Amino acid sequence: MSRTSAPPPTDAVTPSPDSALTQGLKQRHLSMIALGGVIGAGLFVGSGAGIAAAGPSIVIAYGISGLLVMFVMRMLGEMSAANPASGSFSVHAERAIGPWAGFTAGWAFWVLLCVAVGLEGIGAAQIVTGWLPGTPEWAWVALFMVVFLGTNLAAVKNFGEFEFWFAALKVIAITLFLVLGVLAILGVLPGTDAPGTSNLTGDGGFLPNGSEGFIIGLLASVFAYGGLETVTIAAAESENPVKGVAGAVRTAMWRIAVFYVGSMAVVVTLVPWDDPQVAEVGPFYAMLDHLGIGGAAEIMNVVILVALLSAMNANIYGASRMACSLVARGQGPKRLGRVTSGVPRTAVLCSSVFGFLCVLLSYWRPDDVFPWLLNMIGAVILVVWIFIAVSQLVLRGRLEREAPGRLVVRMWLFPWLTVLALLAMAGIFVLMLGQPDTRDQLMATGALTVVLIATGLVRQRRAGRAERAGEAERAVRD
């Protein structure tokens, strides 16, 4: 076995290679991170483009993609409960496939999170400059970066506390939206009449733009679910990692059904799918405005700002822990993995700097480098999901033979649903090739993935040769 590979599982939970990290997250932190992880700015704003393309059939699109995400989370939960590690799926890929796979999945995800930090910072700054015109966007991004850099450089419990309250605000907000929407659909909200099915069947029907519109909506819905993986990264630093992962995964189904599928159903029932506001300012704003709720724009701006800041905080955390785990397994520069007082401070700093560099590129090179960067991360989450599914196929059999007691969470109908999920991911790649915008994303992500795989294979072979040379030298001495 190469020195860069993770050890195989045993009956006892194997200490993760990043065990220098502290277990400072409480169960309430982990529960709320899991709950809030599915509520991002993509739901509040990005879903509008999907509705504009697919019409009322967006409900089916979110249902299909949500089912795929449930399968992925169940697979990831099975492996993470058996072997909690802040490297999460990167560690599992290394155990199942080899060091090159852990290297590829881990660093691809790190790039994704760092670029996302920059994008979220830009979005949050745009909201604040709308309130305070004349102030520079980059200064607000820098302020947010400094705040969350400080949060993540301190003890992990500070990150957990910030994320707990951010997630709580998001959950309260979307719950209020859903309650208001259901009351309006039933016709019991003062000043509203029950819409019936007029918005679902009128203006072109349930599938107004045909199969092509549905495909665009389906692709948009798939990428709205990013962020769920963070809970399995955070679980390694919680008081009870196995219990935390198991609880988060087991509640994933109703969270996805309520927050995503439920909210889409409420919106398209109340608001005509072709209302310009749905795509321009977001479906939730359009719903509040349709219900005559004053200050709808400002309410939504506050909610979206909270969602963006929450995502920034979580992504800096996730990127730093992934980098720390990779370095601990010999998959990156050693200095990046230095842990001080239970916190990988160098990794936190580097991840934040990379994110801010992406912000600067949006100003310096907005027409070439920045769009290329965005395309490069466009399909990374699908690449990660494929590694998760393949890893679970391999590790499930190994666990059943060697440590069946560690299968606290089990993937449903194994191996059939795992194979079905892989086929669905392949189908999404085919659909992406058929759309000009997503085709560019797929090609750029493919190039990044190939470079990482090649680098990982070279590193693995060098490590193998070094290990064999070391063994031969020891044999000669003996």
UniProtKB/TrEMBL annotation:
Protein localization: Membrane
Natural source organism: Streptomyces nitrosporeus
GO process terms (BP): amino acid transport; transmembrane transport
PANTHER family for this protein: GABA PERMEASE (PTHR43495), GAMMA-AMINOBUTYRIC ACID PERMEASE (PTHR43495:SF5)
TM segment ranges: 32-53, 59-76, 97-118, 138-156, 168-189, 214-236, 256-273, 293-312, 343-364, 370-395, 407-430, 442-458
Coiled coil (UniProt feature): none
Entry GO CC: membrane
UniProt region (Disordered), positions on chain: 1-20
Pro residues compositional bias, start-end: 1-10
Keywords: Amino-acid transport, Membrane, Transmembrane, Transmembrane helix, Transport
Any Pfam family matching the protein: AA_permease
InterPro entries: AA-permease/SLC12A_dom (IPR004841), Amino_acid_permease_CS (IPR004840)
Family affiliation: Belongs to the amino acid-polyamine-organocation (APC) superfamily. Amino acid transporter (AAT) (TC 2.A.3.1) family.
Annotated protein name in UniProt: Amino acid permease
Gene3D superfamilies registered for this protein in UniProt: Amino acid/polyamine transporter I (1.20.1740.10)
Membrane topology: Multi-pass membrane protein
